[in-house]
Design brief:
With 171 residues, this protein is of the alpha/beta class. It contains 4 helices and 8 strands. The longest helix is centred in the middle third of the chain and has 16 residues.
């Protein structure tokens, strides 16, 4: 595959800046607005949590009205979430998911990875690289109604953003 400029990830503005209809659905006879979910977890997440993650995602889709999912790309947890969402989108074609990049990919990355389901938040290109993941995570947190976390320690980025999500009253 060769490098083409149209293969770059989509630059997006936060959802509140996008004019769109407020979507809703009926769940269990109750009219519910659709929700957005994000994820924070450890880079070295064990495969043993995959069944719990899978069931959590199904619950969010079927009973909580969650139809939009944003996930990072910094470790095993993110990779696991992305893989599960990709599979679940076959059974639930109405859901949308995107990998939210903290950095623009380098030209060499275009030969190695499919960027078709990635987004790059507008304005992140001006953030110094050492702060890019933090800024991306804060943007995602602003977009979220629901936050799913896998956190085993009280240190690190996953723990930091789990605590921040709780302080912001995210479910």
């Amino acid at each position: 595959m060769s490098f083409h400029t149209d293969e770059k990830p989509l630059m997006i503005r936060p959802p509140e800046a996008i004019l769109r209809l407020q979507a809703a659905c009926f769940i269990g006879g109750v009219f519910m607005p659709l929700k957005t979910c994000i994820f924070f977890g450890h880079r070295d997440t064990p495969d043993s949590i995959r069944p719990v993650l899978h069931n959590t995602l199904i619950n969010l889709i079927e009973t909580q009205g969650t139809d939009t999912f944003y996930v990072g790309n910094q470790g095993k947890f993110d990779s696991m979430v992305h893989s599960e969402l990709k599979e679940l989108s076959k059974a639930y074609p109405h859901i949308r998911y995107s990998v939210v990049l903290a950095y623009l990919p380098k030209k060499k990355d275009f030969d190695l990875t499919d960027f078709s389901d990635t987004v790059y938040p507008d304005g992140l290109e001006t953030v110094p690289p050492r702060f890019a993941i933090d800024k991306r995570n804060r943007l995602m947190l602003d977009w979220a109604d629901v936050v799913v976390t896998y956190v085993c320690t009280s240190i690190g980025g996953a723990a930091k953003f789990k605590e921040l999500a709780e302080k912001k009253g995210k479910r």
